[in-house]
């Protein structure tokens, strides 16, 4: 049978974990078993589970809303249960309310993370844990593998005052933890202190990527179509803080970077000079169908990862920013619009966690100097990581 997820293990004997509790479920389309049956349907049909409420994070429980698009409350057509949105128009909408939590005893969390700090599902989990602590509700995380492995760690921390929905705690951009291990780290090292149980996966090895398991891949969000996307995402998500297209609106999001002012050959040559391991840069042309530079011809580069375990996504993302700022100093720009519920800090500072990174890029400093700044501030994570681990 191969490895099993926390959901599949819970369903063996729900009473062992849930007793006779009233249950709420935080889930999205990834909350499936190996036959692709959804957790909401499986739990609702199970005679030993009293499922009362469904909670949907960004993109919705079963839907495919685009990034940073609010999701409305609704009623699930399959189970008839109320769907509570945890992604509305305000930061307050990201957490369950005291009234909602008063209707349950246990909050189940079953959402596939992609191994990157910015991915908002882990923040949703942390906010649910905080609210559950206040309400006296137990939290049960049904664990799933980190799709880009649990060995490699890349990136830096988070300066005080830069907390946001893409980074609530100072863990690296590529954190090397499963969502269950993140929950343990948040709960203990960062002081949430809720009543937490993690139902671990069975048979997952830390070095394994998702496509090396026996599990089917379900897109965690509309622009995360493949494991290849997840591999490059910890670095290439930085482009969201710029006027460069990160490939949304194309069939290879985050593997492509471009803009109308970009010369793909020049960008490729500049990146090659940095000697980045495990990746080849191919000049190309793109025309995104939506979001940045929609319906415009853009010079671009595609990342072709040739060795996942040698490839450093975060350093590569920083290299793209350094190169674009150097090659097109007048055209390249940092995003100034509101980003994930904050409009007081440049988006790229929220992503890196430290304005010194942006300032160093603007000053024309080398990639080594920029990367040194971008990889600071992980002391709490480093000191507490081992205690959070669940797998060899």
Describe the structure in your own words.
The protein is α/β, with parallel strands linked by helices. It has helices at 6-12, 14-18, 39-45, 98-101, 120-135, 179-188, 227-236, 264-272, 313-327, 347-352, 355-362, 367-374, 379-388; strands at 22-27, 50-56, 74-75, 82-85, 106-110, 138-142, 196-199, 256-259, 279-286, 298-305. The chain is built from 13 helices and 10 strands. The chain has a 7-stranded mixed beta sheet with strand order 3-4-2-1-5-6-7, with helices on both faces. A 3-stranded antiparallel beta sheet has the order 8-10-9. Helix 5 links the parallel strand 5 and strand 6 (138-142). The relative contact order is 0.13.
The neighbouring-strand order within the major sheet is 3-4-2-1-5-6-7
Give the number of DSSP strands. 10
C-alpha-based Rg, rounded: 21 Å
Poorly predicted regions are: none
Overall pLDDT metric: 96
Structural class: alpha/beta
Separation of the first and last Cα atoms = 20 Å
The largest sheet, given as strand count, sense and whether it forms a barrel, is:
7 strands, mixed
Beta-strand proportion: 5-15%
Specify the helix fraction band: 25-40%
Listing every helix as H and every strand as E from the N terminus to the C terminus, the arrangement reads: HHEHEEEHEHEHEHEHEEHHHHH
* Contiguous helical run count: 13
Which word captures the global form?
globular
Topology (SSEs and partners):
Blueprint: H1 6-12, H2 14-18, E1 22-27, H3 39-45, E2 50-56, E3 74-75, E4 82-85, H4 98-101, E5 106-110, H5 120-135, E6 138-142, H6 179-188, E7 196-199, H7 227-236, E8 256-259, H8 264-272, E9 279-286, E10 298-305, H9 313-327, H10 347-352, H11 355-362, H12 367-374, H13 379-388
Parallel strand pairs: 1-2, 1-5, 2-4, 5-6, 6-7
Antiparallel strand pairs: 3-4, 8-10, 9-10
């Amino acid at each position: 049978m191969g490895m099993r997820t926390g959901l599949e293990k819970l369903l063996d004997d729900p009473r062992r974990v849930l007793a006779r509790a009233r249950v709420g479920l935080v889930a999205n389309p990834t909350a499936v078993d190996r036959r692709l049956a959804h957790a909401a349907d499986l739990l609702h049909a199970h005679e030993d589970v009293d499922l009362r409420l469904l909670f949907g994070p960004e993109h919705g429980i079963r839907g495919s809303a685009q990034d940073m698009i609010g999701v409305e409350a609704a009623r699930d057509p399959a189970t008839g249960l109320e769907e509570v949105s945890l992604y509305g128009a305000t930061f307050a909408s990201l957490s369950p309310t005291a009234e909602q939590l008063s209707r349950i005893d246990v909050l189940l969390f079953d959402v596939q993370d992609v191994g990157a700090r910015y991915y908002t599902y882990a923040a949703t989990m942390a906010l649910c844990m905080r609210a559950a602590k206040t309400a006296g509700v137990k939290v049960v995380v049904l664990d799933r593998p980190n799709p880009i492995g649990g060995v490699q760690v890349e990136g830096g921390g988070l300066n005080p005052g830069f907390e946001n929905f893409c980074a609530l705690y100072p863990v690296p951009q590529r954190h090397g933890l499963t969502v269950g291990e993140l929950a343990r780290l948040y709960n203990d090292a960062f002081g949430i202190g809720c009543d937490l149980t993690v139902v671990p996966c069975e048979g997952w090895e830390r070095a394994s990527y998702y496509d090396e398991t026996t599990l089917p891949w379900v897109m965690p969000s509309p622009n995360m179509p493949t494991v290849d996307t997840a591999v490059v995402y910890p670095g290439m998500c930085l482009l969201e803080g710029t006027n460069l297209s990160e490939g949304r609106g194309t069939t290879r999001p985050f593997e492509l970077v471009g803009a109308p002012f970009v010369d793909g050959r020049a960008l490729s040559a500049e990146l090659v000079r940095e000697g980045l391991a495990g990746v080849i840069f191919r000049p190309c042309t793109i025309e995104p169908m939506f979001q940045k530079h929609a319906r415009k011809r853009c010079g671009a580069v595609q990342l072709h990862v040739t060795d996942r375990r040698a490839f450093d996504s975060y350093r590569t993302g920083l290299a793209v920013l350094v190169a674009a700022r150097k090659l097109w100093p007048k055209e390249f720009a940092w995003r100034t619009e509101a980003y994930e519920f904050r409009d007081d800090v440049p988006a790229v500072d929220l992503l890196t966690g430290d304005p010194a990174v942006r300032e160093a890029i603007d000053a024309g400093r080398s990639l080594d100097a920029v990367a040194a700044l971008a990889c600071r501030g992980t002391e709490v994570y480093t000191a507490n990581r081992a205690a959070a681990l669940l797998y060899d």
